[in-house]
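#dry-run=false #mode=assembly
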Amino acid sequence: MDFFLLGELAINGALVGLMYALVAAGITLIYKTSGLANLAQGAIAMMGAYLTWAVASGLGAPMALAVVLALVMMFVVGLLIERLALRRMAGQPVIMAIMLTLGLEIMLRGLLPGVFGSAVKRLDVGIPQAPVFAGEFLINRATLYGGVISAVVIIISMLIFNSRFGVFMRAVSDDQTASWSVGIRVERAIAVAWGLAAVTATVAGILWGSNQGVDWSLSLLLIKALAIAILGGLDSIPGVLVAGLIVGVAESLATGIFDPIVGGGTRDVVASVIILLTLLIKPHGLFGREHIERV
Amino acid sequence: MFYRRAGIRHTTYRSERQLWPLPFDRTLVALIFALLVVAPLLVGDLYLAGYLLPWVIWSTAALGLNFLMGGAGQIHLGYGAVMAIGAYTSVHLVRAGTPLEIAMIGGGLASAAIGIVFGAAALRVKGLYLAMATLAMQYIVDFVISHVPAISGGTQATIQVPPVRFLGVPVVGNAATYYMALAVGTIVTLFMLNIKRTSLGRALAAVREKDYAAEVIGVGTLRYKLLAFWISSFIGGVVGAVLAVCYLRSVSPDQFHIELSIQLVAMVIVGGLGSILGSFFGAALILFAPIVFNNIIGGLSDALALPISTDLRAHVPLVLYGALIIGFLLWEPLGLAKIYANVRDYFLVWPFRHARR
Amino acid sequence: MTLNRRDFVAGAAALAAAAALPLGRALAQDKVIRFGMLHDFTRVYTFVTAEYSQGQRDYLSLVNERGGINGYKLVAEVSDHGNDVPRAIETYERLKQQGAVLIDPLSTPVARALVPRAMQDQINMLTTLSGRSDAADGSVFPYVMPLSPNYWTQAGILIDFFRQQDKDLKGKKIVVVHIDTPFGREPLPIFQALGQKLGYELQTFPYTPPGNDQAAIWPQVRRARPDWVVFWGAGVGQTVALSEAIRNGVRMDRVASSVWLSESDMEVVGKNETKGVLKFEACAGGREPKLIQDILKDVVGKGKGAGPEAKVGTSYYNIGVMMGAILAEGVRVAFQKNANGPITGPWLNEGLRAITNFTAEGLMPGMTSTKTDHQGGGRGRVVRWDGAKFVPVTDWFSANQDLVWDEIRKSSAEFKASGK
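#status=ok
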């Protein structure tokens, strides 16, 4: 057992896991307020990355401005999605709303590469490529920056949830009717939740886009994000942080330990196995709240 | 005027409980079935192999999934994996020498056995969580199939289907494969049409509506949920075998990926949960929408000489397909079957439009 | 009861859609040779299809500008199958109905799925640099035409280049980072066989498709301290592989790739950071070759280009031109053999199997195809990225073909035994 290799893998894995957790944070945000799993989260991240690239390369704006513009635009996009699409699904069974987000994902996956071109695009946010050495361990600088930024954004969203507005959102996720009756504007809380989820997805999209280039495969972030969201508990944002670390480390170690034995490809299976085990053993995740079904 | 209801008197319970009490309905169904049977003589190869055959196969798969989703109320995002298991099992059995009929049943049984494992998840969780569990299983089955060379076959990872005979007729060429798929589809449709009139169908409906209430009145949810998964997976396995033998003629792991599962769920939902006719309509729409859009866009851009880049042209069908799903869910959640039902209701009383059905 | 507007619209749309099913376009009976170019523009092969198709169509436009071949124009029917087999089969049937004599799926899974149909319907299937590697055996696959070096040949040539550089590979360590799909695993038997023959140690690291997360792979590669690294992926897997390699401190001049690496990939990763990366090349890149110059002058210059001018001369564009040129040569040879023959699949097949020493005016190494060798000789060269373009470091050569053909024959015999 090469402990240095495992240590390196664990550190890098934890950082990558944090980057996935950023997407999962958006999913959790939406689940907390609307009660549905947003399967279009990966596609929204991809859209954020494409918009940033379009503003930066197409209009020639400096990257910082492009990032800010993209974040603002995506916030509005999140609001629009909730307003136009989700509001009509209010009384329907949840599977319908989930299929709606799936349809949205398919549409975005066709629209964005179609409009902007399907070749891989370069998104340069100025992260240098040289590795960082911590003793014997080589840490990937891009994932280091990415992981740290993701952790910061997740912590910011946790803080928002503890603020006054966050209390509104928590009330809405608890009981919509009761929230209405005390005067909380439920529609606005849900809309803002979608906007914030779109913003976090955009940050994740920009980080991943600078890592690997912007193209349709950014929408595949969804699967890992779902695994993390379910493991952490679909309605718990701190859970997302912890679950992100666990899933990231598990995946990296699996790639290091099991791939030579099995012949490769264990990375994705780890996420699926984690989902399965979580659902069979503790369906509501590590930090999730039990959902009591009223008769 | 079309659906004559005057003069229909039932004198026995049996005639009252017919599937299609109106003679117009019966004639319509018989006509369509007759058309499907003589299709190879009427239409060319393109329509047969390009449209009818996949439509029949995918409708049968949608029927199997609809049994589970619409009949028993369980979400299943892993139906592609179930079909894959059936396809691979039957192809391996056929290559080992078993006759095709037995291999198809064998494929169905293997799918059912593993489908029950999927179903075990349904006993613990519901709704969204069940969807995630079945999604996870889809990936795991994918992984197992593509990483065990004994299953996936050699370096080329594609297993050819050897020439086979179905009920004595060699399954070669467009007509024979079409008839085999049609036969299997007819049997599954008959099964689905009648299931609602049996105690099994009623038990599943009880479980679908409120499973703990069903438990209270004595309908064992454990038993019926597992049974629903077993039956649905059996159908899925048999359809997978038909897909491999008749349509694809070779199996490789990337043909049964998550896209197929999502496609089937979309077919069921767009068609209408629980509706048999809806499965056929949904299959037709989801299967042909990208193709039709492709043709329309191609024709438009040629006719109007629009300078659309090939990239955009190629992506527009995907956009329209996604928009179609969203549109249906927003404006007609009960699916195409409801739209058909509305149209039928209109013609039921036509031309006396003032009458209310 | 009244029919509300929604249902009426839905019913009307259903009728319109039914009418939109292809009822066979009115085919002009004048002199055309139809090629069915059904590619994957939207799903997996997005990185290569647009430029490849542009190059192919530009070349065919060039031929048509010059009057076609024997008065016949070459027409490319382009459509998208999205790597989905049902759509591919529908498009194939439609093209067959329209009289296509050759199809070019540019997708390994679709090519594999269409092999039985193409062989039965006697329609030529072009599998450029992909598809079934064992289709080079023309005796088992009469209608499947790679007409380009397959993956086994590419692997053999890369290893031979390493051997040329290091004089002797005995005791060295070669690492192969590949995508975990049949395409990625395909060259492994050749790498293993050559490892036994030449004495190097082989280590493989598969990554899950599509390869956008390889953060756990490259630390292991670094620890393995390889002498040479081969990365075998496509699209985003290639760019991420290079980025991760740079971030893990792997030397760029000891890294090599299959043919699927392009200038836009290098641009995404960073033109300067990737200086020194090697790749296999099947035809010359850039705008210097005469054919590309002709296209710039006669086709793109007159505004008849099939895509943006900036893409003319990229690696994938030139591959498209190369395949277009091979098709045109095949048609020419078919006319030589059978000047009046009706334009059918078998007629074109005769031509495609009898091309001799075709170099496309200097664009590619001489290619010769025979009834038994559909690969065309398996020659290519290795090029290196210098920060702005790919520069050749060897001449056109062929290597390890004996081993490759062993593998081809073994695999095609399997197909012959089990398939039809």
